Amino acid sequence: MRLRTTGILSVLLALTVAAPASARDVGKIAKAHGYGAIADQLVAASRPTEFFRPAGTGRLPGVLGTSRLGGDPDLPVGVKWPRCKGKPQSFLAQVRVSDLPSGAGELRRLGGTLLFFTWVEFEEGETEYGMWAGDCSAVLYARPGARLKRTVAPGGGTVMRLKPVTLRFAERPGIPDFALDSDHLMPPLEDVKPAGGFDGWFSFQEALYGKPFVETKLLGYSVAPNGGDACSARAERPKDTWRHLFTMGPDDDFGFEVADAGRLQLLISPADLRAGRFDRVCGTFDSA
């Protein structure tokens, strides 16, 4: 569409580069990007997404259970380090849920700390950059009041050691992405076919999330991977649709470099999320 006035162009640019959106901005930004016909549906479907932002690097905090990425995790006393095929998984992040913004109420109400792990494959002799990940993943839940112990990864396999980075969180409204190999969106908007295709939708998402775009996040929506699996399919079915819990994406600040811009996504059933059960999550890993 050709813009006829510089005034309209200025408005669109302002919406694209201005401060990141809050939930009340979803409809306004949707209309500015040509999605006025589905703006109300997008507003209704939007969910808070908690993006990870670095707050400090290089030193483990003395207080146990605080939110951070990398370093040595604070495991609940008596809980074993997660393994995959007999080998230890790599520790990614832990989140004290009380640190999350108010929109993450379905996690904040649980209290305690969530710890995220995944298996990473390495070339022989390599300990920094992984070849592949995600064959196994685990989420440990340290309930409120649980005794914690800072724990070093056990022997018997190579783990990815990420530098410790303390975290802050930026809350943005999340919207469904395109379904895998489809011109329609993922549930709950599986009947919606947005105009403008993938490029237009990505531009709309950038306006919602703000720049720089960082993929590591909690809640919101998952993204259809580059090649689906049984786990990602659960996020695309219209009934009993699994929820996005956690994504670990490639990012220089966090040092997660696996495969070619590899991204791990963990999904959880709605019933387990309500019940505070995290021992049945599923994961999908893809790369560029």
TrEMBL record:
Q: Carries keyword Signal?
A: yes
Tell me which UniProt keywords the record has, alphabetically: Signal
PANTHER family on file:
SLL5081 PROTEIN
Q: Respond yes or no to whether keyword Signal is given for this record.
A: yes
UniProt-recorded name of the protein = YwqG family protein
The source's superkingdom equals Bacteria
Signal peptide start and end residues: 1-23
